[in-house]
Amino acid sequence: MNQNIIQISHLSKTYKDGTVALENINLNITDGEIIALLGPNGAGKTTLISAICGITNISSGKVTVGGYDVVENYKKTRALIGLVPQEIALQPFEKVIDVVRYSRNLFGCANDDAHIEKILRRLLLWDKKDKRIVELSGGMKRRVIIAKALSHEPKILFLDEPTAGVDVDLRFDMWELIKKLREDGTTIILTTHYIEEAEEIADRISIIDKGKIQLTEQKAELMQRLGKKVINIKLDQEIDIQLFSDEHNLSQGSDKASIIMHYSDAKKDDSLDRLLIKIKKEKYKIVNIETDEKSLEEIFLDVVGK
């Protein structure tokens, strides 16, 4: 069983103006996993990353990375981490290969052109190694930032909204790259507000809102536990849901002409049969019946209460 490479205990962050950015965060991150920190803008995702990386001061609580305290052993913990921030901040007239080499040297690592080449090839940047940053597209610049983050061979990679503002094709490329990095043994912490991103690549999902972690679960278990199936009964006209809701746990579809029943209720005895009989008795005509399953997006919206 993999060990926890990051342990966060009762972490809080309050700014001088009294703003509470993080409140009593408890989270363990397992060596070699991909965990998605999912939350709306302003939820505290970037602040949490900054606290773990030692970029922002912790108000209270404790964070360890690889067994080292991030405050007491800052240099050791920071050396274990590669950080890909949201902002693209690169020297425009430097060559790609020089930018990545320089980043490696900043961590006190000896030159290793074989390692730099491996990273640049993996990121499809090798043929751009002698290009200046200013000559690259936005997507390629984002790849350079990832190359910088990987230059010192970190065990942990933080990706803060890695696909924000990039086109769909590049987003899919990024997802494949992240999966390959995990295969290499890198632990990946990803912040995103793209639900499909978390659904596609994460092993676990942690939903954060208003500075608090609302839940953390294996993605598959979360989908199974909260992504309940529903039965959608489409009728020929708008309905009065009150006629049916006394007896069953029902809701009205957005089109006002559908009855939505939770699958778990439908499996109990003959409740679906009784509902269908009542629909006919009330002189409604059934146009269609279909089953559907809650998506991760719907689960997320339920959890954050929007």
Secondary-structure map with pairings?
Elements (H helix, E strand, L loop, with lengths): L3 E11 L5 E11 L3 E5 L6 H9 L6 E6 L2 E2 L4 H6 L1 E4 L11 H11 L6 H10 L15 H13 L5 E5 L7 H16 L3 E6 L2 H7 L2 E6 L2 E7 H8 L2 E7 L6 H4 L4 E3 L5 E5 H4 L4 H11 L4 E8 L2 H9 L2
Parallel strand pairs: 3-8, 3-9, 6-7, 7-8
Antiparallel strand pairs: 1-2, 1-4, 4-5, 9-10, 11-13, 11-14, 12-13
Helix pairs in contact: 3-5
Number of contiguous helices: 12
Beta-strand content bin: 25-35%
Which structural class do the helices and strands define?
alpha/beta
Spatial order of the strands in the main sheet? 6-7-8-3-9-10
> What's the end-to-end separation, in Å?
37 Å
Mean pLDDT: 88
CATH class of the largest domain: Alpha Beta
Radius of gyration: 24 Å
Number of domains: 2
Helix content class: 25-40%
Tell the overall outline: elongated
Task: Walk me through the structure.
It is a single chain. The chain is of the alpha/beta class. The longest helix is centred in the middle third of the chain and has 16 residues, at 168-183. It has a six-stranded mixed β-sheet with strand order 6-7-8-3-9-10, with helices on both faces. It folds into two domains: 4-224, P-loop containing nucleotide triphosphate hydrolases (Rossmann fold, 3-Layer(aba) Sandwich); 229-294, Alpha-Beta Plaits, CATH 3.30.70. The protein has helices at 45-53, 74-79, 96-106, 113-122, 138-150, 168-183, 195-201, 219-226, 242-245, 263-266, 271-281, 296-304; strands at residues 4-14, 20-30, 34-38, 60-65, 68-69, 81-84, 156-160, 187-192, 204-209, 212-218, 229-235, 250-252, 258-262, 286-293. Helix content is 35%, strand content 28%. Strand 1 and strand 2 form a beta hairpin. Helix 3 runs parallel beside helix 5. The chain has twelve helices and 14 strands.
